[in-house]
What we know:
- With 363 residues, the chain is α/β, with parallel strands linked by helices.
- α1 links the parallel β1 and β2 (34-40).
- α6 crosses α10 (312-323).
- It has helices at 16-30, 75-89, 105-110, 130-139, 148-158, 201-214, 229-236, 250-259, 274-281, 312-323, 326-341, 345-360; strands at residues 2-6, 34-40, 49-52, 55-60, 96-99, 117-121, 143-145, 165-167, 188-192, 219-223, 242-246, 262-265, 286-289, 305-308.
- It folds into two domains: 2-171 and 344-360, 3-Layer(aba) Sandwich (Rossmann fold); 174-341, Rossmann fold (3-Layer(aba) Sandwich).
Amino acid sequence: MRIAILTELFLPHVGGTEFRLYEIAKRLVGRGHDVDVFTVRYPSDTAEEEDLDGIRVIRYARSPKYVTSNGFRSIRGVMEYSLHTALKAIRTDYDVYYFGEWPMFHSLLTGPLVHPCVQEWCEVWYRKIVIFEKALAKIMHNHVAVSEFTKRRMVEFLHMNPDSIVVIPNGVNFSRFRESARQKVWGRMVYVGRIAPHKGLTMLIDSFKTVRDKRPEVELFIAGSGTLLPAIRQYAEGIQGIHVPGQISEEEKVELLRTAWLFMMPSTREGLPLAPLEAMAEGTPILTVDHPDNGVKDMCINGNGVIVPPNSTGIASAVLEMLSNEDEWNMMRKASLQYARECDWETITDDMEAYLGSVVNGA
């Protein structure tokens, strides 16, 4: 198949969607398919066109400030990229066009012009942009959701036909991780991800203070970058046992997850992030919160994690209980490994390859 992926950001820009599409695309190339990625030229000093592990990456609509200082997208950058995408796409001839969800306008403009199309959905906001989401749901006829949670929201809030939605989740390079219970640091809690308001990190820090008052051996690592990083560093300042290194390398992330006792995900809004999967590949159970907009809950239903009330008291109580029950933690560790093993990128690519083939063949 000749496959076009139309997505606003791609490597070297780092993000969950970028990694997902890269991991799937390079495996599709390895199976003999041609994959071209159409994306913003951001950062602005990247090459206009390059070969990345067999993937042809085409960058345009150069926008030095596409991602603004507060983490949002430049409106001008979004419109330039969306318009350029439509103009480029109508001059191409691919077997299938696969659209990333954001910035959404590229799909709304280009979807009616090319065929066949597939729209990927990583999340459903519905409160603020439901008019655009409903329009996108009608324009596109083939849809991929990254989780059952996202699919349920597509059906509930956008009134989409569930038969038009296929779930193809995120994956993990399972063979890359070398889990060993002997390397775990008992009581080491780790968060890796964006440092943003909806991630619940101040609540996490508050819960840690409660836990540390009773179990002084515990420690908490908060790693990642984002607009709230300076504020989180200030909030954690002076609290023994908390480390906020900011952005870390892939190697540092893997090592941190390898030694982690518990992966913390107190976010109130998530689709299906990659970091919890990577944590489970290292045998690290997940703690997340019970919030209606939190899709990570779907990852914790097979004994591989715990779901707690979305407040510092609920988090602290669950952590203290787990610290006193090593047998239960060991069962969660084994369940985490099994969950991650079933989400290997090769298996995910099998599903994507079969689905795209069915779209191309009109099934």
